[in-house]
Amino acid sequence: MATIVLQAAGAALGSFLGGPIGAVIGRAAGALAGSAIDRQLFAETRRFEGPRLETARIMTADEGGGIARVYGTARVAGQVIWTTRFEEEKETERQGGKGGEPATEVTTYSYFGNVAVGLCEGPVAAIRRIWADGEEIDLSEIDVRFYPGDEDQLPDPLIEVKQGAGNAPAYRGLAYLVFERLPLESWGNRIPQIACEVLRPIGELEERLRAVTIIPGASEHGLDPKPVRERLAEGEDRLINRNILFGDSDLVASIDELVALCPDLERAALVVSWFGDDLRAGTCRIRPKVETARRDESEDWRVSGLRRGDAATVSSLDGSPAYGGTPSDAGVIRAIAALKDRGLKVTFYPFLLMDIPAGNGLPDPYGDTEQAAFPWRGRISLDVAVGRAGSADGTAAARDAIAAFLGNAAPGDFTIDGSRINYSGPAEWSYRRMIFHQAHLAARGGADAFVIGSELHGLTRIRDEAGRFPFVEGLIAIAEGVRQILPDATITYAADWSEYFGYHPEDGSGDVFFNLDPLWAFSAIDAIGIDNYLPIADWRDGDPEPEAPSIHDRAGLAAGIAAGEYFDWYYESEADRAEKQRKPISDGAHGKPWVFRPKDLVSWWSNEHFERRGGLELAEPTAYVPMAKPLWLTELGCPAIDKGPNQPNLFVDPKSSESAFPHFSTGGRDDLVQRRFLAAHLGHWTPGHAGFSDAANPLSPLYGGRMVDPAAIHLWTFDARPFPAFPGRNDVWSDGENWRLGHWLTGRLADAPLDRLVAAILEGHGISDYDLTGLDAVLGGWVETGPASARDSLESLFQLVGAVGHVEDGRLVAHSLQRLRAGSAVTAFVDADDEPYVELRRAEAAETVDAVALSFLDPWRDYQAGSAEAMRASVGSPRRQIVSVPAVLGESEAISLAAGILAESGAVSETASFAVPASLLSLSVGDVLSLGGHGGEWLVTRIETGLSQRVTARRLPAWRGSVPGGDAIVTTTPTRPNLASRPFAAFLDLPLPPGESGFDGARVAVGASPFAGYEVASLSNDGVLKPRARVSRPAILGRLTSDLLPGPEGRVDPANAFTVSLPRGALASVSPASLFAGGNVCAVECADGGFEVLQFESAAEIAPGEFRLSRLLRAQGGTEDAMAAGALTGALFALLDGSSEALSVTAGEIGRVLDYRVQPLGRSRSDAAVVSQSHAIGARSVRPLSPVHLSADFAGDGAISLAWIRRTRIGGDNWAANEVPLGEEAERYRVEIGDGAGSNLTVETVEPRYNLSTAAQIDRFGALPAALDIAVAQLSPVWGAGTVRRARFLRPL
């Protein structure tokens, strides 16, 4: 019996697609699906599968395979739709052949693939990441073209070349990629498994968005589209502003995605920050700051003539900078160009951040013990804030404080030198200096609009002794100066929503000031800027009389834009707010309530403004001209937090004293409420959208445009740091956690709102009559990998998020469960024959579910399948329901949804059946009732019509929590670009190594992290590069951190030691036997420019990466001359462990300065990692070694016999040989003999000896010298004299 009933119900529930009126679909549908019910009654585990989750993972090449559909953002495996044979590339390298040895030729083969990979149904907006065999690939290293799948796309040129003109399909309607000459070595010379992150926005927000702000305004190079390198150590770089693999820089990746997602985007406001350091206007300095005083970077940071070392640093918080630094001038100019290159107008938005840390000890204008930490700029005031006892407001001192804040910098104090803005005005860090500096930046970059300030709420209401507003006057002067710099730009001031319309002192005077009207009326101001964070809801959980069905209700939010709080009524106190005790906003005396209504933009804009004194209007209006200038919403935003529309100006940032939740918020994340808030505003102000009213945004009779310019509604905000690197990379940025509940649109655009998702599925099946306005949920994405019925998809979705649907007058109507509330109470029932008034049925325990396991796609883990489970407490052997859906969800979001499914499964098991009288014939499927005598709320699922109506209803769950829009941020695994660092290249002029010949002492060693292998070439005068060496092993290189003094030659030096710092690698001690066997050989650059070759026995690490080397075997290889010069701190150190390579210099190049290029293998000559150095080396290889054992034998008559033993630079380590090889073309020596008094005799000899007679000595020196200074050098007929051996001999008495 149960099976028959459930099967019948299942048929009815599934037939809403054109079926009978009584059909309903909801979470229950998943448990009422025909014969599957029979198995569920007897199984321990129930399995529910909608569109397949697994099939999205593997790339195929099947003919006739299904085409995936993506909604929102999801990862999709590709399908090969076209390919060619692999291309083979052969490279032969000649190795060896020195010294008569036979040469070896090594041939390597590389393979490249041309392949087109179909992704999904188009059109889609963009591709973010691409994975090959599960690893993300760096798109800068491959040639790939993306086709979005629109109906206008043309054939790919490569396919057309290969297939022939006119024979290549354009694959219209299919999004696909074409890889051209994809290197296959990394994947075993095969086409790898390709998967892509596809972005297909389906929401109305993306369609309506026309202007947005770009942050962070504090990021030294974050706004620069040009990649900037930082050298962490010699041979190790990082890219400061490229932390992703799908763009040339963070900014480029971010704005390319933004433009792709928002087709109507016209304008971007670029936020650029300086820092204030005090809430007291008279002592506040405003200046650019840096994160750190020292940074070795490829693009020097410069702002307003300051270099990094000259700038102040931002405060630190937990050992890290509290803010990013001020963006570098050159990067800002390039950022403006990048935005304009994408067809966007640019609003330049100077921004003042208050860098006031906790524990600052500064006197607080608001009476606290010190100034609040990292406060809002709108709190800058006088030493004692306006309205407090003892304030200087209304005195000359107030004007003086404002004058100090503004400063005296003038537009002419700045000069432009390329991308540098230099300053030569008064020595001050002032507001005028900041604004005029940034105006020159805007002019240099070509910005279209400029904001002269924002939300300086505390300053614009300060009055002087004459009752004037000096800061407003200062803004007027600034606007005039900016106009000189930017004659064609739109200029505005971005007033806070509580500031733009006027100032009403809370002193009981009844005064009304339109204090900003002189600014708004000034000729240099083109638009009235408003940062609009006005609340548009007053939602609270459990409200018995809510003003809308839910906080997400479009109509409810739209109605609050020009009504509700700050329009119709206000709360006098927080106690009144808690009790919902509202007071109407009125103006009994003058009948102009709009004067006190911040939300009433239309009345404020349309009417003349009359100030009041003592409650009485002045006779003359202000200078403001009604309807003369448009309103720009310079900021419009809402945090992605529960009940964000209640207080959209608030944000969560633990370091800031301003951090707070909106009124009545639980603090949970809610992406949907942010999306609905913004969409409601854009629809309210923009003609052509449903619900737009001309009265809400009227036309100006003076300039012909709308009051609020729809193209200048700047949504706050989109980040220059691309998703998911931001917010996931907390190793790079410390504010990532703020994203979760913040105002960011980054990572939220291209989500899949449930109503638009369901609509897209229905329209894909030809169904266009529906009402989905009651669906309140948002998913990251949804992907269907093959043909699926609308029923299957919607059953999966509705079960997942908690929604019900029914057909009403032929239209599908759907609602989220949290919206449903009892609309009526049924207390009268018809007495049907042999049936109770109300028949309640509850499923047996064996039919209920105790646990739900939900499988989903996790975006924080590269869309790998995730699982979340919810379980009832105190159940020993739970009956588990497995729900598998192709939905993109965060883990905690999935846990919440699993809990909702579990809660719903319990409610579905209880139904009520009853008959109602004819007076209730208006009941319809989908209504929610309360039943007299029976608790809870009941959803009508079936109505049988006869003499009376027999109604079947099921109990709704008590669970009413809104579906969250996300979860805690999962720290993402760093996917750093495959960066080739600028190498630590050491060019070494060494003695000829053992076993080598020619000029192989001219060597190069390279250290780098990561080590990519490096090609070394020299550049000739005609610009041709000649290959010199290929370095395939990283060397251990370093710098001395102490001096190395001269020591004994050829012996262990027990006295001297030195320390060396290594950026990478380590050094180790060896035994004495290993030392004398040639262990631990190194080269140290000496003060004379040469290298001492020495060995060390002991190596002790005294600090991370720093080693003390001792028991040194000095002056190896005949380098005693370099040893004698000593080595200084900072000198080069190289471990000679076989990692260096000979430079292949020729005889004609010995001693010549050559320009060398060290280039990472596989990189272009223009790559930023290529380094250039100039050296003249090779002479040590051919220089004869100094003789040894120089001796003098004095004869009785005074004659002297000199003798020595020659050394060889070639083959001298053979202990069995009677004589070492000569090593030179002929044996020849130069002997210099001096008497110590300046007289010298120079002779040459072909033997290792020389005799000097008594007569020759007297003839040369005039007498027999008491001492003789002898210098002997072996001569090379080609290369000249070698290293000199010197000695002094005393004549015997």
TrEMBL record:
InterPro entries per record: GH (IPR017853), GTA_TIM_dom (IPR025195), J_dom (IPR032876), Rcc01698_C (IPR056490)
Q: Which Gene3D superfamilies match?
A: Glycosidases
Q: Which residues form the Rcc01698-like C-terminal domain?
A: 1035-1133
Q: Which Pfam families match?
A: GTA_TIM, Phage-tail_3, Rcc01698_C
- What domain of life does the UniProt record list for this protein's source? Bacteria
Positions of the Tip attachment protein J domain: 786-944
What are the GTA TIM-barrel-like domain coordinates in residue numbering?
429-727
What is the protein name for this chain? Answer: Host specificity protein
Q: Which organism is it from?
A: Jiella endophytica
